[in-house]
Design goal:
Layout: H1 3-17, E1 19-21, H2 22-29, H3 33-45, E2 49-52, E3 55-58, H4 69-74, H5 77-88, E4 96-100, H6 104-116, H7 119-122, E5 125-129, H8 132-139, E6 145-148, E7 152-154, E8 159-161, H9 163-170, E9 176-180, E10 183-185, E11 189-192, H10 195-207, E12 211-214, E13 226-229, E14 236-239, H11 245-253, E15 257-260
Parallel strand pairs: 4-5, 4-9, 5-6, 9-12, 12-14, 14-15
Antiparallel strand pairs: 1-3, 2-3, 7-8, 10-11, 11-13
Length: about 260
């Protein structure tokens, strides 16, 4: 096979799956790993992909890249809806305090809470959030108790960030927190691109009695710029696909329950 055709196929693989490995490409095209690395280097030069340890990811998957809220809302919507539905079943019964982190899947969970929980049960829940869309959604169902954490609102995510946000969260000890993540990795843990968002997420993880991560399968085996928690700080991961062997082993070792939606 000519190099040009191989490059086209590699580019298509990266686009469709988001990530390829040197070993995978070497076996598929029956070429040496050194040849694969040269191919990846050439494709990186023309902006098709970005090389990472052991392979490459799509060019748009830089550790600092972050899509807008509107873009993320439409991506993997069906999977996120299933994840939110599973998360709804993890809400405590009786009086409880619940933190909803900023994110498209947690926003879907807020919608299900507002639409599906009986009024009597909703009245027992204190919902705490720093995310403007989630606060609005919960406030539309008047039965809930709602506490909004303030701070400077970041336009990209419509979430409060900064020291004031962190200080307010540090004073709380909620029963359960539902947290989003841009990356869930066996060694790096949970991560997100923005340092200020990471500080808020880290505080939520530390203060909650139970931590549930909501992450669709595109976030698995991914790393963003800033680590905000280790796997051992998480109680449950709700996702739409069984994690690959390496991540699955790390989650088991960290005693993280995996719930498939």
């Amino acid at each position: 096979m000519f190099a040009e055709e191989r490059h086209r196929l590699i580019g298509g693989m990266v686009t469709s799956t988001g990530r390829v490995t040197v070993a995978e490409l070497s076996g598929r095209f029956e070429i040496t790993r050194e040849t694969v690395r040269r191919d990846l280097a050439q494709l990186e030069q023309v902006g098709v992909l970005r090389r990472v340890h052991g392979g490459a990811v799509a060019a748009g998957q830089a550790s600092t890249s972050e899509e807008s809220l509107s873009t993320r809302t439409s991506r993997k919507h069906a999977e996120k809806q299933r994840i939110a539905a599973k998360a709804l079943g993890l809400l405590p019964v009786g009086e409880a305090s619940v933190v909803l982190d900023a994110g498209t899947t947690t926003e879907l969970l807020a919608g299900l809470m507002a639409d599906q929980l009986p009024r009597e049960r909703a009245a027992e829940l204190l919902v705490i959030t720093h995310a403007v869309p989630i606060a609005y959604r919960i406030s539309s169902a008047s039965a809930f108790q709602l506490e909004v954490i303030g701070g400077r609102v970041r336009g990209l995510t419509s979430a409060a960030i900064g020291n004031r946000t962190v200080v307010q969260l540090e004073a709380l000890r909620p029963d359960i927190a539902f947290v989003g993540a841009n990356g869930v990795d066996a060694s790096f843990g949970l991560s997100t691109p923005d340092p200020l968002e990471a500080a808020v997420k880290s505080t939520i993880v530390r203060c909650a009695r139970r931590v549930v991560v909501l992450a669709d399968s595109t976030k698995l085996d991914q790393e963003a710029l800033v680590r905000f928690a280790g796997l051992d700080e998480v109680d449950t991961l709700v996702t739409d696909r069984q994690p690959e062997a390496g991540l699955a082993a790390a989650l088991e070792a960290a005693d993280v329950e995996v719930v498939l939606a």
